[in-house]
Design brief:
about 0% strand
Length: about 90
């Protein structure tokens, strides 16, 4: 076979190999970008859940404080009722 044919085959092989490497790198970069986007979305979801949980914790604390105050008021009213009850022994 002539030398120029070997040169064409080698050059073609180098071009194909270079195209494969470039394609692989682009695919890798695309996968990394997708993973970064997914991670960012997950971070945003986590932040939203954290905010929601904090709001619910605050609401629960407020309800607990209200319930405690109402219980104390109920105890006072019950004690006053017991004091003024004429049928109390």
């Amino acid at each position: 076979m002539a030398t120029w044919i070997w040169i064409v085959i080698a050059a073609t092989a180098v071009v194909v190999l270079a195209a494969l490497v470039v394609g692989w790198q682009r695919g890798r970069e695309k996968r990394l970008a997708q993973r970064r986007e997914k991670a960012q979305a997950l971070r945003q979801e986590a932040q939203q859940r954290h905010r929601t949980a904090k709001e619910r914790e605050n609401m629960a604390q407020e309800l607990k404080e209200r319930a405690t105050a109402e219980r104390k008021e109920g105890d006072k009213v019950a004690a006053h009722a017991a004091k003024i009850d004429p049928d109390r022994d």
